[in-house]
Amino acid sequence: MIKAFFKEYGAWYLLYGLLSLLFFLTFYLYRLPLVYFQTSFIFVSTILILLSLGLYYRFYQKMTSLHFFLAVTNLDNLNQLEQPSDKAYQKIIAALIQKEAEAALVYQSDQDKIQQMIKLWSHQMKIPLATLSLMEQTNQLEKESVRQQILRLENNLSRLMNYIKFNQNQSDFRFESVSMRDILVDLVKKNQVLYRQKDLSLTIEGDWILKSDKKWLSFSLAQILDNAIKYNKPGGKVSIRIQDKSVCIQDTGIGILAEDIPRIFEEGFTGYNGHEHQKATGLGLYMTKQILNHLEFDISIQSQVDQGTKVLIRKR
């Protein structure tokens, strides 16, 4: 503690020593009686010692309070430090504690949401697993049906992993030249078994070469196409029209209630369709909106109940 004290106040003691030396040289060179210098030196040194004891006591209290603060993180123990600089440090420490508490609260909230989503997705993944188990027990493992359930498992797992990665701000974008048509064709091919299951017809018109992140753009479009399949009617249609700086995906599904459309991009919002069909997590369109914002796209939805939904994506 003494070493730390002299480290903090050492400059003042060095200044005192230099001034004393200058006074001594002055007395010596002018041949003044050194007894006067000696008397004044003893007097000033006595005052310095008393002042040092007081400073050391305050320094000891300050260091003790700071060490106690580090141990229990209690600002009340710093109230005895009344110097202006100490008060300024107290404000800084209080602000840092507040900021850390807010960050911890946000982190805990994010973790809670992730846990909830994992539980929800786990429930959704049980459905195709139970279906596969039943098919195996009844010896009805038809190739097409197995592929449907496996595809559902893959899609659900992909959404979960991408949600976790996106929620943890790990979505590093890599921009390259991509074909919008090629991305959509690949997504259709991947999910063709689901289209056949509902006997859906699909058309793709046009193309658009642009600079974007292929993986995240593909993920966003996959959410829209998944909804076009999920909420479409058997024998329905999905039409994709690609133009320069825009993509329009339209289906003939059950549509969306007018009162649900303003909230369709909110995190966790499922609306009437999600509750009715028990298939929605309320995160697909939310993530789509957030990712497209990062990629500098705007997305809008128009829909009428029992007539279908139209999703328009435009480049800013």
Automatic annotation (TrEMBL):
It is found in: Cell membrane. The chain crosses the membrane at residues 12-30, 36-57. The keyword Heme does not apply. GO terms for cellular component: plasma membrane. Keywords: Cell membrane, Kinase, Membrane, Transferase, Transmembrane, Transmembrane helix, Two-component regulatory system. It catalyses: ATP + protein L-histidine = ADP + protein N-phospho-L-histidine. GO terms for biological process: cellular response to phosphate starvation. InterPro entries: BphY/WalK/GraS-like, HATPase_C_sf, HATPase_dom, His_kinase_dom. It is an enzyme of class 2 (transferase). Residues 120-316 form the Histidine kinase domain. SMART domains: HATPase_c (SM00387). GO terms for molecular function: phosphoprotein phosphatase activity; phosphorelay sensor kinase activity. Its EC number is 2.7.13.3. It comes from the Bacteria. PROSITE patterns: HIS_KIN. It is a multi-pass membrane protein. This is histidine kinase. It comes from Streptococcus ferus.
